[in-house]
Amino acid sequence: MIRFVIRRLLYAIVVLWLVSTLVFVFLHVSPVPVERVIGGPRATTDTLNQIRRNLGLDQPVIVQYGQFLGRLLHANLGDSYINGEPVTTLIGDRLPTTLWLVFGAGIIWFVGGVVTGVLSATRARSLSDRFVTVFVLIGLSTPPFVMALVLLYLFSTKLSEAGIYFFEAGPPLQMHFWRRMILPWIALAFLMVAAYTRLTRGAMLDVLGEDYVRTARAKGLSRRRVVYRHGLRAALTPVVTQFGIDLGALIGSTIVTEKVFGLQGVGQLVYQSIALGDTPVIIGVTLMVTFFVIVANLLVDIGYSFLDPRVRLS
Amino acid sequence: MSSYTDLEAQEVDPTAGTAPARVQGRTPFQLAWARFRRDRLAVASIVVLVLIAIYAILAPVWAHLTGHPYDATFPKTGLDVNGQPRGPSGTFWLGADQLGRDVLVRAAYGARISLLVGILSAVLASIVGTLVGVLAGFVGGAMDTLLARLMDMTLALPYLLVAIMLATTFQISSVGASLTLTILVIAFFSFAAFGRIIRGQVLSLKQKEFVEAARSLGSSNARIMFVDILPNLVAQVTVLTSLLIPTSIVFEATLSFLGVGVRLPMPSWGSMLGEGSDVFQTAWWLLAVPGVLLLLTTLSFNLLGDGIRDALDPRGDRATGGK
């Protein structure tokens, strides 16, 4: 068990190291001179050289690489090119909004996906199952940003014309929390509900075909009890695994939702940095999200190995 | 991410494409085609896709007929006195955008980008994914460890963020270069999910008797890989590729929506939605035209992919197994 955890931990560290090295290489082969971005188009040669010295860009590449890794180990992601603030501060300010967005949407999609998945699996081939299949197909085909734009148009523009205020733009953590978050949650969760419905439905149908489910029915347990006690419990394992992975990954995918609904989260920070060419911020967020994803994967793997001994041995 | 799990959910029996021919001696392809033709949804989705393709191919014709090149602005006819875009009319069939450009013409050029990027990157990802998957699964050992870990790592990367990072650090401004980069980025983030599934299939195919037979006849590893194993993967690869196309189209649209996909002035459905998002309140057609086209395209490709899967896998049942 301990050997398994250590092996996964080492692997996670190697992946993080590889990703940060990749990022460093990108920075170095980038054709955009950093000092130009900071100094602006009218900076003199002296100023540009000064900026290079301050950033340590006059050092040999290997020294720069060492300094880069050293900073990362101290959780220092560098400073913004635009306003000189530490990237960690910028991210820290925006992270709560993004986390609220992701966890709220996560609850909606997990509950929604599992409930519809179970309902359609237990009523396979019925009319409501057909209906769910169509919904899943549409859900999986709708790009998240189109969903967000349509929701914003229908509920914000059209309803506010009718005097109903369903959505308010602005910082959600101070006021009107529900009004600000409900549409972004639905927009972010829509595709995932479809994906989780499909996942749960498939897992349930597999489990309900197992011998022990027939045995449970044969010994006289009610259908309801068999479906929920024997079936759902076993079917949920792969769904929960996927949930852990997706929750970590989704932090990187909120950019579009945050942009459309004007939420000042980490995604919006990235979006604004694209236009400004503020590379340290984009890289910082990328590294942070990679870290989240890898930690989430690690926790899922370790959790899984407790539940299922076969995983440890593979 | 959900897109990867979708792919993984689409397992198809690898031997399905080579079912033994029956009474009339029809080939597996003829059998699959006969099943496919009975699937009304799949046939309808082909019709929709052909119509969208015709609309895209005829893009210069629309520009000629309306007299509106895709990047030309017509502030006099396209915008009203307040500078707001005018809706669908005789001059602008599907309305004008916020700069007074023709939405019909721009959406047609956008369709070219969506189909081109979607299909090319899906095909590229499937070629690379198949090769990597076959190599990892068949050769095994250190090669397998290396490739499998590489694929795991790719799947752990936040793909949208890395794509944005690439686009900003390289600051590409030409349409052609941004198109190439977009295709490469999408293919890069898609090959791993593809390769993992193929690797799993190859691992099980490797144990089959016909591989043993080929080996005892003296076939080389390369011959077994390409002559014996690869043909058995055709059904799987076809299905996965067709389902990867809509994912790639959405990926491109998202990148262009954020302004890091295909560069302006070349229109893409994603960038049209992004540029127009400030004026949707008054100009619904700027949301409706590219939005509906995008949804129709991805929905049709998904239905087509499901149809191909059902046709190639006679034992799969749409209502129970499959998905």
Automatic annotation (TrEMBL), chain A:
GO terms for biological process: transmembrane transport. GO terms for cellular component: plasma membrane. Keywords: Cell membrane, Membrane, Transmembrane, Transmembrane helix, Transport. InterPro entries: BPD_transp_1_N, MetI-like, MetI-like_sf. Its main location: membrane. It is a multi-pass membrane protein. It is found in: Cell membrane. Residues 95-300 form the ABC transmembrane type-1 domain. The chain crosses the membrane at residues 9-29, 99-119, 131-156, 176-196, 281-307. Belongs to the binding-protein-dependent transport system permease family. This is ABC transporter permease. It comes from Actinomadura montaniterrae. The lineage of its organism: Bacteria, Bacillati, Actinomycetota, Actinomycetes, Streptosporangiales.
TrEMBL record, chain B:
GO terms for biological process: transmembrane transport. Residues 1-21 are annotated as: Disordered. Its main location: membrane. Residues 111-305 form the ABC transmembrane type-1 domain. GO terms for cellular component: plasma membrane. The keyword Ribosomal protein does not apply. The chain crosses the membrane at residues 41-63, 113-138, 150-172, 178-198, 233-262, 282-305. It is found in: Cell membrane. Keywords: Cell membrane, Membrane, Transmembrane, Transmembrane helix, Transport. It is a multi-pass membrane protein. InterPro entries: BP-dependent_transpt_permease, MetI-like, MetI-like_sf, OppC_N. SUPFAM superfamilies: MetI-like. PANTHER family: D,D-DIPEPTIDE TRANSPORT SYSTEM PERMEASE PROTEIN DDPC-RELATED, OLIGOPEPTIDE TRANSPORT SYSTEM PERMEASE PROTEIN APPC. Belongs to the binding-protein-dependent transport system permease family. This is ABC transporter permease.
